Known about the structure:
Elements: H1 22-44, H2 51-60, H3 75-79, E1 89-93, H4 99-106, E2 110-115, H5 118-127, E3 134-137, E4 151-157, H6 165-176, E5 179-192, H7 208-212, E6 220-228, E7 236-243
Parallel strand pairs: 1-2, 1-4, 2-3, 4-5
Antiparallel strand pairs: 5-7, 6-7
Helix pairs in contact: 1-2
Amino acid sequence: xxxxxxxxxxxxxxxxxxxxxxxxxxxxxxxxxxxxxxxxxxxxxxxxxxxxxxxxxxxxxxxxxxxxxxxxxxxxxxxxxxxxxxxxxxxxxxxxxxxxxxxxxxxxxxxxxxxxxxxxxxxxxxxxxxxxxxxxxxxxxxxxxxxxxxxxxxxxxxxxxxxxxxxxxxxxxxxxxxxxxxxxxxxxxxxxxxxxxxxxxxxxxxxxxxxxxxxxxxxxxxxxxxxxxxxxxxxxxxxxxxxx
Length: 244
């Protein structure tokens, strides 16, 4: 789970620039359209998360493009000074094909990464043979009991913004529930998009109240910042860090 990008100059949930080629630009625009169309169909059917598997499966068959499926880890994640990973457990929420999970694992964390899409997990395993990451299918809205307070580092990168507001109230505390005592939660999310005016999406930007809602159950904010990223579809991002 991650947010689609809609701009030919942007790729991925963090809006990082993609290859400067006409074909790449056209692919990204088409991918954003694919994602929004499938999300709308899924929402209309009363299934707010089913479109992720539909999109990944269609992409694998060559019938759609996953617009955030790029090789580089999130630019905002790479810019963070993360705690040392040795002896610590990390959980990547909505990992997709694994770009952020592999980055965190390379820092020494014993890393688990999950996605609701079985096809996304298959892709992650195929693309990273021999990876130390444990990739698994799981549902954020029905979290595994054994993951409660189990991870020293939890990364939520652009997943909640791909959920309609009606189910965010369940997703946000579920993410916080993964953080162990003394652990860290990183939240990266859209604060604004270029498509806010008509309400289309995903992504749907998080409000300040939604960002603040992560600070529950003993989690306290260390920093909550708005980061500018001019020239992308997500021109202002939330970058929030919490600790328990």
